[in-house]
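Service request form, structural biology core

Requester: graduate student, group of Dr. S.
Request type: structure prediction, single chain
Budget code: on file
Notes: please return the result as structure tokens.

Sequence provided:
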Amino acid sequence: MHKDHGHHHPSHDEAPRPASEGMSVKEKLKTLLEHWASHNRGHAGTYRQWAKRAAEAGFGDVAALLEEAAEMNTAMNTVFEKAAKKLEEV
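Core staff response, request fulfilled:
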């Protein structure tokens, strides 16, 4: 577990276990894309919480950068959604 944010990260090149056992590459990719998107949503929420706290503490520049990081996670999820759609087409 990473001490800095309170949850465990499985290896990011593997699907969460035991779901990955015996999966095809397509099934594993689908699972990974869903996992990564969910993971990003969680981090984006945390960044936004801390942006609010930073702003309230008078750290406006830090708050803005944390909001930017949250938006970057959201943008990454858009890419993951596009990849998932492409995967469904094949």
